[in-house]
């Protein structure tokens, strides 16, 4: 049996395409040459093994490469633009609402301040709430809801506050804006759920609005409220809820803001090559998935789980009661503060989608209006130039180029390239190909 096996191996070595074996087993050669061939083939096997290991390790490192392309088109879809007055309520709201709104709206961007507010002013605020509820009871009202006051006494977009509106140099109006309740109060979104395009690049060819912020109606507390006057503007995807409180661009009165927008389409790799997930969770109160919408629902659901009610800004949570003022005082206010400090995208299981669009922006400012134009505007408004500038501002939002950026991640080492590398290394070091592998398979089987 051993003799026949030896003959089989010898015969295989003579005809295999792995040529080093025939040199080692060639009986007609001197032993010294066969030993040299054996050492050389062994060294080549070691080198091939080393480089094959490196190739596999490179693949298992799951590196990515990013391809960035400038895509040119004849027109670009105009994004949603959400505009909020920095003042959340009219000063006509009663004293309690002023205190309540200052507490809620000033702490949203700053969880640290929120915790301080709840710790240091809780007793004073409780007295204010209870006193206000006593007055409500005298009027036959047993509960106070912040969303009602927001819709009733928030900043209203009308012919007075929106004195000028053009899109693509054509007139637009308040009918082109959709009312939306955010943590900043009552806001307005342009082109919400609509398809509008900009087909000429440059200033004035996008959205241009003149706004009256009506400072005399500001109700912010001088110590605990927001000391600024103006609006915040957030440019975002139509399918994403606005995060104007976090990412909005501040525009003060007396200035014109020229906001250049840039569309970027991002195509990310799934795990383990990237951080995105091909399977995103289904949101209960949003038609499309986004990390902003997911985190927003997570926040509202956390408040609901702790207090049995929803925050005032979660109006899309149907069949769930809103937290009234006493509930905000006793439960939901502190629950919201806890969420701000302890929860994140990971704890809420909000994954990054693999394909989404973002809008970057850059802003420059100019005085608005100029002296001569301002005196003309002020005369028709029955004001002087100083008063007019205290209340009015201009927004000019536009694409400066009819192109967008596509950023696409891909595997740095694909399965095909790994197989090609392995085949090339085996061929280089040992002269082995798939044909040779088939010969070895035939030998043993």
From TrEMBL:
A Gene Ontology molecular function term of the record: ligand-gated sodium channel activity
Pfam family of the protein (one): ASC
One of the protein's GO biological processes: sodium ion transmembrane transport
Topology within the bilayer: Multi-pass membrane protein
Residues spanning the membrane: none
Keyword Secreted in annotation: no
Compartments (UniProt record): Membrane
Keywords, comma-separated and alphabetical: Ion channel, Ion transport, Membrane, Sodium, Sodium channel, Sodium transport, Transmembrane, Transmembrane helix, Transport
Taxon lineage: Eukaryota, Metazoa, Chordata, Tunicata, Ascidiacea
GO cellular component labels: plasma membrane
Organism of this sequence: Ciona intestinalis
Highest taxon, organism lineage: Eukaryota
Name recorded for this polypeptide: Uncharacterized protein
Annotated family: Belongs to the amiloride-sensitive sodium channel (TC 1.A.6) family.
